[in-house]
Amino acid sequence: MRLVMIGTGYVGLVSGACFADFGHEITCIDKDEAKIARLQEGVMPIYEPGLDALVDRNVREGRLSFTSHGLDAIAAADAVFIAVGTPSRRGDGYADLSYVYAAAREIAAQLRGFTVVVTKSTVPVGTGDEIEAIIRAERPDADVAVVSNPEFLREGAAIEDFKRPDRVVVGLEDERARAVMTEMYRPLNLIETPLMITDRRTSELIKYASNAFLAMKITFINEMSDLCEKAGADVQHLAKGIGLDKRIGPKFLHVGPGYGGSCFPKDTLALTRTARDHDAPLRLVETTNEINEARKKAMAGKVAAALGGDVRGKVIAVLGLTFKPNTDDMRDAPSLEVVPALQAMGASIQAFDPEGREARQLLRGVAFKDDPYEAVTAADAMVILTEWDQFRALDLDRVANLMKSKAIVDLRNIYRPEEMRRRGFAYTSLGRR
Mind telling me the catalytic residues? Predict the structure, then answer.
């Protein structure tokens, strides 16, 4: 099939490369000419494991191309995807749909013959109706079906999620689009991936509801970890005990300093705004947002408590700055709250992250180091903020020798308390005795 992807951000680039690997012919379009030039040279704008090799292979085999002037490709396409950003709108938290609507207008001008326009961007319920109205106003003669096809990609595991998804959700109002979408995802038939066909508005809500539920699950275990600390229980055993219940499941029950990233913060906020507009407030989701923001802010206090309540003049090594491992994404990362709060308390920060290059622009006054051992040198405390695999296998004897004092605050619970005590560390973690 001939497919066009409007937008080469995280979703558009990963989806385009994976569709090309399925055997489809993909043209990825983006107005950012500098980004397109880098992609044409094989330079990825994001860090995602395996993406550079996937893109390279499909470009070489002629199935994937990048352009900033390829709107004419829409005329020959079987389907055109809108995969542009929908950031939180400044001031009110609503999803900013200006890029989506601009893409719809550009698509309308190029349509020839029956075309399926697919919304891959995360959008509030009813956006598909607006996209269809825009296209029909611009091109009353257009033969078009507007479809919702939300993405469920985890940063750091996006290729696996696309090629082996739990489900594919498609929302449509025109039955002619069913055949196009079924053929598009036909390669997934071999692994019997459920293809869920529903109406467009339900499909749009499924994406938001999924993210909101997972955000609530994370927030629940984080609150339970606070109770475990007060009551003398172990949150990791608690999580395993409830996660073995098949109705609950073990995923997203890992305690931490609060969720961040490109999806959960903005999507839960946008969902609560939409719900209030429909006079159906989602109080659980609203409270989840409030608790999560408060938790990120509270983590600096936990670090200070581990150092006797006062970090003035202390050197603190922070390992991990991105919101999760295997990504370079700094959006709403806990580090953006924790590091400035520690600095405001009077601490000096030495930090290392394998891929968080953007942190150098976002975090001021931080001494960025080239590896974790350089970061912990002469430090009064080491704080683990992101659970990169390399932090799980540190040479702890070397760490102890390099540090000024042996205080470790593990905000991801990657080490065992008994082992850390045996090695002489003053070890603090979350929800464990």
Answer: 263
Domain ranges of the chain: 2-198, 208-289, 299-428
Q: Coil, strand or helix: which one is 128?
A: helix
Q: Are 203 and 170 in contact (CB under 8 A)?
A: yes
The percent helix, strand, coil of the chain (3-state, each to 5) is 45, 15, 40
| Three-state secondary structure call for residue 384 | strand
Residue-wise pLDDT for 255-281, tens only, equals 999 999 989 999 999 999 999 999 999
Query: In the numeric block, which tokens belong to residue 120?
Result: 């891959």
Percentage of the chain modeled with pLDDT above 70: 100
Backbone φ and ψ for 316, nearest 5 degrees, come out as: -120, 125
Q: Across the chain, what does the average pLDDT equal?
A: 96
How is 297-364 classified by DSSP, letter by letter? HHHHHHHHHHTTT--TT-EEEEE--SSSSS----TT-THHHHHHHHHHTT-EEEEE-SS-TTHHHHST
Q: Does domain 208-289 have CATH number 1.10.1040.10?
A: yes
Asked if residue 178 has pLDDT above 90, the reply is: yes
199: number of Cβ within 10 Å:
12
How is domain 299-428 classified at the CATH fold level? Rossmann fold (3.40.50)
Q: How confident is the model at residue 134 (pLDDT cuts 50, 70, 90)?
A: very high
Alpha-carbon separation of residue 293 from 86, 253, 289 (angstroms): 21, 18, 6
Over residues 370-423, the pLDDT tens digits come to 999 999 999 999 999 999 999 999 999 999 999 999 999 999 999 999 999 999
Instruction: Assign domain 2-198 one CATH number from 3.40.50.720, 3.40.50.300, 3.40.390.10, 3.10.50.40.
Output: 3.40.50.720
Kindly state the percentage of the chain with pLDDT values over 90: 97
Are the folds of 2-198 and 208-289 the same? no
CB–CB of 407/380 below 8 Å? Answer: yes
Let me know how many helices (H) and strands (E) the chain has, helices first: 17, 14
